[in-house]
Amino acid sequence: LLRLIAGLQPFEAGGRVSIGETSAKIAYMAQQDLLMPWLSVLDNVMLGARLRSERPEKTRAFDLLARVGLTANVHDLPTKLSGGMRQRTALARTLMEDRPVVLMDEPFSALDAITRVRLQDMAAELLKDRTVLLVTHDPLEALRLGDRIHVLAGRPVTLDEPLIPVGVRPRDLHDPAVLAGQADLLERLSAANLILLGETAA
Question: Is the pLDDT confidence value at 122 over 60?
């Protein structure tokens, strides 16, 4: 779904996705980190600007790497990184693009529980005025970060009626409404092999 929206693969039976004037407004974080193995962590984060022949904002790149806890690894190659560190690098690279539309596929899946919550909070802060489409298998993550939550089911896939969480993102882990919503989503997910689609709208 995200690849279709990003224009990375064609629709099999026609159709198109229109997002404003151009797909260049999109940043896409795939489930795989897709780091360039010959580039350092810092250079991977600045890759988009260099591919566009733009001068990368090195100060911003260092700041994002500090926010994701990789200050000590800026000159490391991806082969020296753990899976979680690679995912944090990919997250910093996505945020570095500073696009109004952000597509994210399981962006926090490789992280330990504490780091996951911390980076969810950071992403919610930095993407506050963006439109974000986030695919996740984690009901709590969807409830903390989404303005509308859809369960995808069936072949072809269809959307159910959205669940609309209350409160401001990122929602508190101890919020009774969040915990009740998590139980509801778990029941719906256990009924079939389903995934969640969380949306935030600018």
Answer: yes
Of 28, 7, 14, 17, the C-alpha closest to 133 is 28
Express as a percent the part of the chain with pLDDT over 90.
65
d(CA 6, CA 26): 7
Q: How far apart are CA 135 and CA 85, in angstroms?
A: 20
CB of 181 within 8 A of CB of 138?
no
Q: Which amino acid is at 96?
A: M
Report pLDDT digits (tens) over 72-83. Answer: 999 999 999 999
Strands 158-159 and 148-153: antiparallel
For residue 181, pLDDT over 70 is answered with yes
**How is the chain classified by DSSP, letter by letter?**
-HHHHHTSS--BTB-----TT-GGGEEEE-SS----TTS-HHHHHTHHHHHTTPPP-HHHHHHHHHHTT-GGGTT--GGGS-HHHHHHHHHHHHHHT--SEEEEESTTTTS-HHHHHHHHHHHHHHTTTSEEEEEES-HHHHHHH-SEEEEEETTTTEE-PPB---SPSSPPTT-HHHHHHHHHHHHHHHTTT-EEEEEE--
